[in-house]
Amino acid sequence: MARRPTSHATSWRVRSSAKRKRHVARDSEGRASLAQDLDQGNREHRERMLEQIYRVIVEFADDFGINRQSTRRLFLKAEKSVGSSPYRLHQAVHFQTMLRISEILGAWYREPAFLDENGKPRSLPLEGPKSFESLATRFLPRFKLDDVVEILVSERVLRRDARGELIPMRRTVIFTKPGAMMLDRVPVIVQGLLSTIRHNANTEDQRGTRCERLTILDRLPVEAIPAFNEQIKKLAQSLLNQADNWAMQRQLAPASHSRKKTVRAGVEVFAYVATEAFRKREAPS
Amino acid sequence: MSQSLKTAVMRAVLRLLDPLARLLLDAGIGIGEFHQLAKRAYVRAALEVTRKERPNFSQIGVLTGIPRREVASLLDNPDTTPPDVERGTQRAERVLRGWWNDPEFRDPSGHPAILPRRGRRGSFTVLVNRYAGDPRVRTLLQELLRVKAVRRLPDKRLEVLSPTFATARWDGSGIEVVGERVRDLLATLVHNLKHPSRPRYVRFVANAEVDPRFVPLLMRDLTEQAEVLADSFEDALNDPERTVRPARSAQDAHRLGVCIFVVEEPTLVDPVAEPSGVTARRSRKPG
């Protein structure tokens, strides 16, 4: 049976002699298991990891109204297809559309023709030279202009000003409604995270590993959560801007005829908050 | 000091004097008054160099080239008190930061809300208590009103105007801030010249050939990134755990800070010299 992780909580209660001896024995087991934990995990550890990932996925499916029967059927379907067609990014067609939309915003925030004298994105007329149409047809040529505008305005990515011109409300595209694009993004994120963990686990040389960093704030007051979210969004935007600036001088131009092999690389930043109810649900049984 | 080093110092001082002379001209201060200020600064510097309990007028006179009697007169009216431009600055900065960033103090459109002076939620008093950690709400408000970072509306509610307390206004405190910042920068640069083995961090990054079309974009990105960086420094530097709390007796402490600023001025990129032979090749007709 899988061993529970060693607790980091400190107990200050004074114990009886017998209890103290049992506690000392448990402590030394704990120290031994910590040494094992640092070593390469065995089959038991790996299976435990997988079982917990499945648990997270089943909980996630519950939250999206997918019943257990459908979850099981979809799992079997995925299991059958993984050999013949493993998951690849190009399958996330709706996510590709989302990337094109983020390129529209990227150009709007980066190209001087679309910026005012303060570096803020100009409001653009729907049609004409230097219009929203010129941006939309560049990155989403197969979509109807009115549809693109309607979706982006309803998702509060864009807004119309008093003159009816369009103006972006933020620099990044995040859809709050669980629509096709948002849902298609989830496996992309999970696959990206797992591929980084797998790569790092298989890489001996530290210099060859990919970035994977985590900070945990254990005692954040609940009333500070809105400020925490704001702060992390600001820090993340700064980090992503810096990554973009770094990449701009190194990426090959879109129409480049270079024979250099290229890859798609990315950075995803997210914050999470484990509320009390969520913590109880995630506590091991 | 060798002649070449002296020449380098004089060139550096001349560069330094360019913006200073512009400031003095704008303020209506002529060369005579500047000369008096320079003499005062020379005497103060010489006093620091000689480091004697009782000033030796003759020695200072020899060092500075100022007559002994004038040295005595300048030392009689020392005017050495530094302007207290940092009084309350950190507290005020923290309050302004909370007003612009904390969702509780923003309106539904995401802009800083107009706040009532008092109230149990979303008021200026709550804001000050949360971010300044100081019960002197009135004093802080007066400071913010004075530097025009905040204004009082006819209905007595308060509107925030500036995201920062660091004013660059053409008034007494704005000009004093200029003096302090330039002094800080010079002190760090001179320290590094004198102590190259333990320098303080200085880094200057610039491109004198930026396409003017990209200036607004770069200004925006530099400002946004600097803001994030400055906020992180502010959190690290003003952590109460790392700050000496006042006690009955004086305690040793350090003034530690970081200054980030943007430079901008128009330049010209020289034309490329046309290589010889190009004209001849261009003029050659095909066929």
Secondary-structure topology with pairs:
The complex is a heterodimer of chains A (285) and B (287).
Chain A lengths: L16 H22 L4 H21 L4 H17 L8 H18 L21 H8 L5 H10 L3 E3 L5 E3 L11 H22 L23 H24 L27 H7 L3
Antiparallel strand pairs in A: 1-2
Helix pairs in contact in A: 4-5, 4-7
Chain B lengths: L2 H24 L4 H20 L6 H8 L3 H9 L12 H13 L22 H8 L5 H10 L3 E3 L5 E3 L11 H23 L20 H23 L40 H6 L4
Antiparallel strand pairs in B: 1-2
Helix pairs in contact in B: 2-3, 3-4, 5-6
Any key phrases for this structure?
heterodimer, A: 285 residues, mainly alpha, two-stranded antiparallel sheet, 9 helices, 2 strands, 52% helix, disordered N terminus, B: 287 residues, two-stranded antiparallel ribbon, 10 helices, 50% helix, disordered C terminus
Largest interface, counted by CB within 8 Å of the partner chain's CB: A-B, 20 and 18 residues
Strand order of the largest sheet of chain A: 1-2
Structural class of chain B: mainly alpha
Query: Cα-atom Rg of chain A, whole angstroms?
Result: 25 Å
Shape of chain B: globular
Sheet bearing the most strands of chain B, described?
Answer: 2 strands, antiparallel
Overall shape of chain A: it is: globular
Approximately how much helix is present in the residues of chain B?
Answer: 40-55%
**What oligomeric state best describes the polypeptide chains here?**
heterodimer
Which runs of chain B of at least 5 residues are low in confidence (pLDDT < 50)? 280-287
Mean pLDDT of chain B: 83
What share of residues of chain A is helical? 40-55%
Distance between the termini of chain A: 12 Å
Q: Which series of helices and strands of chain B comes N to C?
A: HHHHHHHEEHHH
Q: State the low-pLDDT regions of chain A, or none.
A: 1-16
Question: Which structural class fits the helix and strand makeup of chain A?
Answer: mainly alpha
User: For the report, how would you describe the main beta sheet of chain A?
Assistant: 2 strands, antiparallel
Number of strands of chain B: 2
